[in-house]
Design a protein that fits this description.
about 425 residues, alpha+beta, 2 domains, six-stranded antiparallel sheet, binds FE2/S2 (inorganic) cluster, binds fe (ii) ion
Length: about 425
């Protein structure tokens, strides 16, 4: 009797795939299939410098990219310096309290203006170039060449440096280069596109799903950076499935039942899961140390929400804290991840916080560091395997990996130039298994 099955592996392209094919729909045929039949995204997407360069432009310069925490830029002149698609950008507030974002470079000869760790743009909300002292305000206006406070020019010699009489030069033409900025909840977003579509289109139904959490009021408690020897997409793909729970997170698995996990995704550029009821404390720590937010309805008050915001940010929200992972691609196999732990002031006990809140925050920080380290270690091993050209692609485990399929198809859309926001599941929560 002959076996008539065709091994689908042999139909996957041999590696390396010609980079000229990375922007063609036909390259992704096997990942475009329905999830039950689909193969994973082509492995070169995680290893090829050419794919990385294309992806940098196609995924990161035409998306609203979460870059920071809204409450970290609370006042006039406060700022965060971030990198999107390899470009340094800073976000600040002008004197009217409005957000502004700019490319972090001087309009004279392009010197980088602010250091990566800057939290204030400069004295009195003025941004001064360290090279020849051109100075800007928080609306990006070029205030002038160096006749301004702090320029350290000896008294009486200012006029020598006055370039305002330069022929054909109007400093109004030399304001900082602006970048689109917006917020949703605890996130600052920037978009490098000249005329971006509204952030609301990308977010889909997320604002409604998170309405009762009052996310714009949450405040940073801890921040930590991880250097990850893996492609940024692997960090996302690991985040959006819990198939790996028993083996990678034995502590978490003791308290988090498979049957309590649901898919939680509507229309929008995101993937989502939830745990309801949310796991309680375990030996490895838990989330009970802080007060739950009072505005939550019964289901939010007993759920953990896990959302991957396309292209590269994780958002975990529990009833009393949030954990965010910003992933910045550096090269095909290197990502810098910034983890931020947040809480609502109410969860910390109101003004000044209560005695146990600090302990609760510390316990949460340890818990998430453990879970995240476990995740990053396994993700680095995936990267090692992917580097071997013998691997041409795998098969989706459909029960658990529908969000990966959704995500990988968003990546493909951007690579081939399809403008599409995925629609969601029919119900708000989708159980992954039939009841036993
Ligand atoms: S490069 Fe900035 S002032 Fe010259
Ligand atoms: Fe995990």
């Amino acid at each position: 009797m002959s076996d008539t099955r065709v091994n689908p592996y042999t139909t996957l392209p041999a590696r390396p795939v010609d980079p000229a094919l990375f922007t063609l729909e036909s390259t992704y045929r096997s990942t475009r299939l329905p999830v039950e039949l689909a193969s994973t995204l082509l492995p070169d997407a995680y290893t090829s410098p050419e794919f990385f360069a294309l992806e940098r432009d196609r995924l990161f310069t035409d998306s609203w990219v979460p870059v920071g925490i809204t409450s970290d830029v609370a006042r006039h002149g406060a700022c965060v310096v971030v990198e999107v698609a390899g470009r340094s950008i800073f976000v600040t507030r002008n004197r009217h309290g409005e957000l502004r974002a700019f490319h972090n470079l001087c309009r004279h000869r392009a010197t980088k203006l602010l250091d990566a760790d800057a939290r204030e743009v400069g004295r009195r909300g003025r941004i001064r170039c360290p090279y020849h002292s051109w100075t800007y305000d928080t609306d990006g206006a070029c205030l002038g060449t160096p006749l301004f406070e702090g320029s350290d020019i000896p008294e009486g010699q200012e006029a020598i440096f006055d370039t305002s009489i330069a022929t054909g030069f109007d400093r109004a033409d030399y304001g900082l280069l602006e970048v689109a900025v917006d917020t949703w909840g605890l996130f600052l977003f920037v978009n490098l596109a000249p005329n971006p579509s509204p952030l609301a289109t990308q977010l889909g139904d997320l604002p409604r799903r998170f309405a009762d959490y009052r996310l714009d009021e949450w405040v940073t408690q801890r921040r930590r950076t991880y250097d990850v020897a893996a492609n940024h997409k692997l960090i996302g793909e690991n985040f959006m499935e819990y198939y790996h729970l028993p083996w990678v997170h034995p502590e978490l698995n003791k308290v988090s039942k498979f049957s309590d996990h649901y898919r939680w995704q509507g229309p929008g550029m995101y993937t989502g899961m939830c745990t309801t009821p949310v796991s309680r404390n375990s030996d490895a720590g838990g989330w009970d140390g802080l007060r739950p937010l009072s505005s939550l309805g019964p289901q939010d008050a007993d759920s953990g929400r896990f959302v991957w915001l396309f292209p590269s940010t994780a958002l975990v929200v529990l009833p009393n804290h949030a954990f965010v992972l910003f992933n910045r691609p550096v090269s095909p196999n290197h990502t810098v991840e910034t983890a931020v732990l947040l809480a609502h002031p109410e969860s910390l006990g109101g003004e000044g916080g209560d005695d146990t809140a600090e302990e609760g925050v510390e316990q949460l920080a340890k818990f998430w560091d453990l879970v995240n380290t476990q995740d990053l270690e396994i993700v680095e091993r995936v990267q090692e395997g992917l580097e071997n050209p013998a691997y041409r692609g795998g098969r989706m485990c459909f029960r658990f990996e529908e969000p990966l399929h959704r995500f990988q198809n968003m990546v493909i859309d951007k690579m081939v130039g399809v403008d599409r926001v995925p629609s969601g599941d029919e119900s708000t929560m989708t159980r992954m298994f039939p009841d036993p």
